[in-house]
Amino acid sequence: MANHGHNQRAQFRRHSQQPIGTITRGTTGFNRLRKVDRWVFYHPELHQKLRPHAVAAPLAIDVGYGDSYTTTCEWAWWLRRINPHISVVGLEIDPSRVLPPRDGVRFERGGFELAGYRPHLVRAFNVLRQYDVTQVPDAWSMVCGRLAPGGVFIEGTCDELGRRASWVLLDRRGPVSLTLAWQPWDVAKPSDVAERLPKILIHRNVPGQKIHSLLQLCDDCWDKTNGLAAFGPRIRWRETQKLLREHLPIPRPRLLRDNILTVPWSVVEPETTVFL
Predict the structure, then answer these.
(1) 84 vs 64: CA distance, rounded Å
(2) Residue range 187-213: mean pLDDT, rounded
(3) Number of folded domains in the chain?
(4) CATH code for the domain of 156
(5) Whole-angstrom distance between the N-terminal and C-terminal Cα of the chain?
(6) What is the reported pLDDT for 276?
(7) How many Å separate Cα 110 from the centre of its chain?
(8) How many CB atoms sit inside 10 A of residue 51's CB?
(9) Within its chain, how far is the Cα of 63 from the centroid?
(10) Are strands 152-158 and 121-125 parallel, antiparallel or unpaired?
């Protein structure tokens, strides 16, 4: 498994106006976050939250975009297909990574305090995976407490090329759902995506934990559709999801390009997670 630079720590002072966070590796690349970009675009509830009839000029913030503008500008392109008036700001704790405006995106210094903004949508990808797991609830709470009414926060992780990814969707009350997404030909079985679980869950993938049970269920249903392997992993996954719906309250798939699974947070929630 790749070195994730674990156990970074920050001081989460709730009323601080200074940037909150620690400098992480900052690696990124073109299309690395394409799976979450597409998921946001095709998510019916998020789509409605950002449409002009809901918010005339919503604000989206990308926390910890790294040492390049690429993924933030790609995200802005997708978001402007929903609402052409959306403002997108990239925040970085490292002042040397703050870039001039580009493609209609502003770049500023900031962290989990969101630089004083109250956005409608926040994304933090491949940031908390480099922190100590005990700090995840503090980061979640800080961001969610600064959301605009109806706002949401997407926190997740992916591999270096964006082939395997997972993320948690949160609102002001806490976690709402977990999504797993992967390039269909990149994995032999659904549980292979486990190496890219969000920080809050990656160490929980052991027997007796809910996330482990979910991944085992996915693999079991996947094995039952082995007869469809000749038709390719996309068709096989669609049939696998039909079996999963007998056990889980999951929506019908909308994306054909990615293999994707979204489940309510209650399906995977660790018993010791505290969200205030």
Answers:
(1) 23
(2) 96
(3) 1
(4) 3.40.50
(5) 32
(6) 45
(7) 19
(8) 12
(9) 12
(10) parallel
User: Which value, to the nearest 10 degrees, does the dihedral of the CA atoms of residues 129, 133, 134, 138 take?
Assistant: 30
Q: Quote the domain boundaries for residue 87.
A: 34-267
Residue 174, both tokens: 């806490």
Count of residues for the chain?
A: 276
pLDDT single digits (tens) 134-182: 999 999 999 999 999 999 999 999 999 999 999 999 999 999 999 999 9
Asked whether residue 15 is domain-assigned, the answer is: no
Residue 193 DSSP SS3: helix
Q: Which residues pair with 123 in a beta bridge?
A: 62, 154
Long-range contacts of the stretch 112-115 (C-beta < 8 A, 24+) = 112/10, 112/12, 112/20, 112/21, 112/63, 112/139, 112/142, 112/143, 113/16, 113/17, 113/18, 113/19, 113/20, 113/142, 113/146, 114/61, 114/63, 114/143, 114/146, 115/19, 115/61, 115/89, 115/91
In this structure, is residue 105 part of a structural domain? yes
Where residue 56 falls (left for φ over 0; alpha for ψ -120 to 50; beta otherwise) is: alpha
- Amino acid 92 reads E
239 to each of 91, 222, 226, 246, 260, how far by Cα in Å? 41, 8, 10, 12, 13
Q: Is residue 80, in this structure, part of any structural domain at all?
A: yes
Instruction: State pTM to two decimals.
Output: 0.92
